Prior knowledge:
Number of strands: 10
Number of helices: 12
Number of domains: 2
Order of helices and strands: EHEHEHEEHEEEHEHHEHHHHH
CATH topology of the largest domain: Spore Coat Polysaccharide Biosynthesis Protein SpsA, Chain A
CATH class of the largest domain: Alpha Beta
Shape: globular
CATH superfamily of the largest domain: Spore Coat Polysaccharide Biosynthesis Protein SpsA, Chain A
Distance between the termini: 51 Å
Oligomer: single chain
Amino acid sequence: MFFSIIVPTYNRALILLETLDSVISQTFNDFEIIIVDDGSTDNTADNIAELKSERISYFYKKNEERSVARNYGADRAKGEFLIFLDSDDKMTKNCLSSIYQFIREKNFVPEFIFSGYVILNTDNSPHYEYGLSGLFKPDKLFYGNYLGCSSIIIKKELFKKYYFNTDKNIILFEDWELWLRIINDKDLYCFPGMSIIMINHENRSVLNNSAAQINEKILHFKNHILKTSTAIQHSFAHRRVFLMGIYSYAALHTAMTKNNPGIAIKYLLLSFLNNPLIIFKRRFYGVIKNLI
């Protein structure tokens, strides 16, 4: 087995079917799909049963949040490479075949790979896209999580040296935290194609947190990274970039809730005080746009 596609899900029965259809219809065939139902109370199980696909393994477990669900799926995976596909994302039709070819064309086996993604609005108009070729520069991750969870392809043996952090206070940032740990030890190779499609819908988990919840998670994550990341601890410049990034992230997502503009402005000011270069970042103007 070459790929294991691990899909954690919670009460997304209808959206999940679209996600699974994008995987089942791949032009590449050497893969399995592991669905980890993290305690859904809707008809997810019935919908999965109706698919009757031999590629799908379905596991139901009590709700423990997505980091635990992803780790649970990884421990049951048979594939050489793991992809953690969010249950509201989709793969382009040639996603797996293109990545397989990318890996096979190397004179070595890359263990940590990033594939580009496209974010669409609900009317399918383009919202944002991000992709690179060559090696990913680790210092990009100090500013923010450019990668997204669904766009990473990782060797199973490598993943099992790290796993997702299951601290519930890190949820929202669990993939960013993991990439920071791995990229400290391993190069990240960029496949120069757009293989993942994300939809900018109103029920995205990142948008369903109050300002108070965002504040609590931001403070916990900030303190965790400042204590654990040696690359950030030992560099004044990296520390300032990280603080600019985490505060501007808080400003953007607080502004997007439309409920607490004052708190969003506070975070934006903290970001600027840590690194005035924020005014040259796309995120700065995203905050302003959502505040107007």
